[in-house]
Amino acid sequence: MKSRFGAIIAGTGSYTPERRLTNADLEKMVDTTNDWIVQRTGIQERRIAAEDECTSTLALEASKRAIAAAGITPDDIDLIVVATLTPDMFTPSTSCILQEKLGIKRHIAAFDLGAACSGFVYALVTASQFIATGSHKTVLVVGAETLSRIVDYKDRSTCILFGDGAGAVILKASDDPSRGLQSFLLAADGTGGQFIYVPAGGSRIAASPQSLAERQHYLKMNGREVYKFAVTQMTHSLEEAMKACHLQADDVRLVVPHQSNLRIISSATEKVGFPPERVYVNIDRYGNTSAASVGIALDEAMRAGRCGPGDWVILLAFGAGLTWASATIKL
Asked: Looking at the chain, which residues constitute the CATH 3.40.47.10 domain(s)?
């Protein structure tokens, strides 16, 4: 179906907690070193939510900033989509909690979306479809995580990677369909689900003394398999994103990838001809914030003038599922 409206990014926002967990801190917690972490991941520190913070509170702060940047009020929003793998609770959804915290009294649509680290791009693409059909005009899209609540700080292979944060955008309908989201790729391969997962806490393995003792409520990851998958799929997704809009690397102002691992980001983008200055990286400061990472990076890039109106940008992500996604956008 041909789009009736373009879904443009009217404003962006992000929030990260104040507490910093540095590599030096981790050296005191597990058998690791600063050099080992930096060489393998590019991460120097990550942010950790305070005891009184949760996914919805991080989402709230990012949302407020996106709303202000778009020059709207919360009451202008007619749909909220939150991407997260660390919701406040199973139910109600974090999007409904966020609606209440924003003070939106109207009975708008709100739902959560689960695609792990691909979540923000999945959510942005999904929200854009509501705008393209004309059913909704102003959508709040948020990627938010408190991964510190599911990370095992006795497992050095995972605890060095993850941090907390939130990124948000306001999408608005435009009469010019040549602006906003121009192409996208959403994909999944469920056969790779065992490479990144949290075994317990759902209906398969309920909480019990045994599941707690076996630390099954923490995130598990096969780093070697994830690395191979990520380099291949991020490269392919970037190539397909450019091909769909007949773009060359020189046409694209900025690539905004999921902040998973600096070596993955560098390998994938270099293969497609992007120099480092046209790839946004902040993994050194925040680590991997899963569904929040692309939103945080996009907000920082726009506020720093790395991209702006009229520019082509490509968002890339991959994550548990296994899932991967790209979005080619004309700002």
From this structure: 6-178, 181-330
* DSSP notation for 160-217: TTB-EEEEEEEEEEES-TTSEEEEEEEEE-GGGGGGEE--SSSSSS---HHHHHTTTT
Cα distances (Å, whole numbers) of residue 246 to 7, 25, 257: 20, 47, 20
- How many Å separate Cα 300 from the centre of its chain? 13
Whole-prediction pTM: 0.95
Q: Identify any residues that bridge with 323 across adjacent strands, giving them in sequence order.
A: 188, 319
Three-state DSSP class for residue 203: coil
- pLDDT tens column, 180-219: 999 999 999 999 999 999 999 999 999 999 999 999 999 9
Q: Is 258 a catalytic residue?
A: yes
CA angle 180, 321, 262 (to 5 degrees): 70
Tens-digit pLDDT profile for residues 32-69: 999 999 999 999 999 999 999 999 999 999 999 999 99
Of 117, 159, 261, 307, the active-site residue reads 117
Is the bond preceding 247 in cis, omega lying within 30 degrees of 0?
no
Residue 288 annotated as catalytic: yes
288 torsion bin: left (phi>0), alpha (psi -120 to 50), beta (else): beta
- Check 54, 159, 261, 288 and give the catalytic one: 288
Q: What is the CATH T-level fold of the domain 181-330, as seen in this structure?
A: Peroxisomal Thiolase; Chain A, domain 1 (3.40.47)
Structure tokens at 274: 């992007």
What topology is assigned to 6-178 in CATH?
Peroxisomal Thiolase; Chain A, domain 1 (3.40.47)
The β-bridge partners of 162 are 288
